[in-house]
């Protein structure tokens, strides 16, 4: 999977961490579907957000060509890449997730999507738009030259343990985070040297998502939290570190 000279366990752990980070930070992705007429592949740019476990969520119009394709054949492939400021784009991490795209009518899915893609609120209420989720069946990670291989869905999907308790407390927890000073929020986002105004936009058992305008950041916990008290403890660990 990775550089042959590297420790296999360490290389695998790094690949899992990088793939999960891409899945949490991505706001757009290249979605490949199969054409209803002829079965040829079609790749389109779509907006993306992550569900509680990290699975991709989409807000799509049923009038779109790719959505019509999925209605006939739900098989799809999604390519996610990270932001690239410099260097060879082929030497930066990316992950391809394969599986089936299903409707996800849960109001929670739309809420998570709009927290991460605020401008989508302009059309989210249109009658032809609906929420969809990619049910991941395969994972191909490429971390750059010499770092490529297959991961499993279990590798990249977080446990849903504690989801009900954390989502019920999410608004309250995010308000607590956003009440912190700008320096603390920047430290959590990992951008303490940059002059950006960060805000917490969503959480899960493994960490916290933040945004500053069009920029996204991920604060990853060292271990999972299954309830609000443990989640607060994990956040304090980030602040202390």
Characteristics of this structure?
241 residues; 32% helix; alpha+beta; 3-stranded antiparallel β-sheet
Structural description of this entry:
The strands form 2 sheets. Strands 1, 2, 3, 4, 5, 6, 7 and 8 form an 8-stranded antiparallel sheet that branches. The chain is of the alpha+beta class and 241 residues long. The two termini are 31 Å apart. The longest helix is centred in the first third of the chain and has 18 residues, at 8-25. It has helices spanning 8-25, 65-72, 107-116, 153-156, 163-178, 182-189, 228-240; strands spanning 28-34, 41-47, 49-50, 56-61, 75-81, 94-103, 129-144, 147-151, 199-204, 207-212, 215-220. It is 32% helix and 32% strand.
Number of strands: 11
Number of helices: 7
Mean pLDDT: 93
Structural class: alpha+beta
How do the SSEs run, as a string of H and E? Answer: HEEEEHEEHEEHHHEEEH
Largest sheet: 8 strands, antiparallel
Helix fraction, binned, reads 25-40%
- Low-pLDDT residue spans: none
Radius of gyration: 18 Å
Shape: globular
